[in-house]
Write a structure and sequence with these properties.
Layout lengths: L1 H34 L2 H17 L3 H16 L4 H28 L3 H25 L6 H4 L1 H24 L2 H17 L3 H50 L4 H4 L5 H31 L11
Helix pairs in contact: 2-3, 5-7, 5-9, 7-9, 8-9, 9-11
Amino acid sequence: MLAGIERTEIISMADIAKYQKEIERFNSSYAKEAIKEPVNFWGLAGFAVAAAYTQSVIPLLIALICEIAYVLIIPNLPSYRQLVNNRERERIRALNISTREKLIKSFTPREREAVEYLRWQKDKIQENYKKFTGAKQLPTNLKTLDRRWEDFVDLLDVYRRRKQHLKSINRQAVHNQLSQAFRTVENTDDEKTKRVQQTNVEILKRRLASFDELEKSVKLVEGQLQSIENFFGYLNDEIVTMSTPEKFSLLDFEQLSDSIAMTKQMLDATNDSVGALDAYNREMGNYELLPEANR
């Protein structure tokens, strides 16, 4: 029983230490932001100028005391923490927008046209909602169109890269290596060679299976892209004929959102399996089985 109590105390102490470390890290981030504030910089600069003008260290001592008080008080103010959090969220949002716009510029002219048309349609839907219903604010579900447009861009990027991946695959080379490995397994009497080739057979089978998964994923993403485009068109048609905001609430956004989430999960799972096979082929020196960009 004593041993159990001791273990509990050790675990508790470890948890407390962990929480204290997290709190310290959490607090230190706000302290760093407070130190970098312009008001803090110019305040210190003012004291430095006063010290230089009076040829006295008293302004510097006052600056040190004020700085200690500033660092202890300001980072712990809820209003300041909210300001820092909002600023960080805005920074991340701006970074995401910049990254996505840079991605769009890498698309082909036809792909960019599809993206820009959907962006225009999204803005038109939101504009028409206010115009035809007389509402001043957009409902929550209509605001999610921004996210759905971002999903379209992300999925289009996956779609184009996967199609390029499929084009770079030499399926016949995999079939040839599989046939050769089968023959080696059947004809060799050396157990070590047979085990190695049996492993190779299984890997090549998985590789062929991954081709099928890739093709299925490309078709799935293509269908999802069409679904998003059709949903935007449907919304625009419906909003034009609406007379009251209440009717808009009947439209179902959850089905599209769930469908996109399911597609992304499937793509993530395929990414893992294909990535593992690519790594194995690279390690085994089977560079002809790798996409050109990953050789």
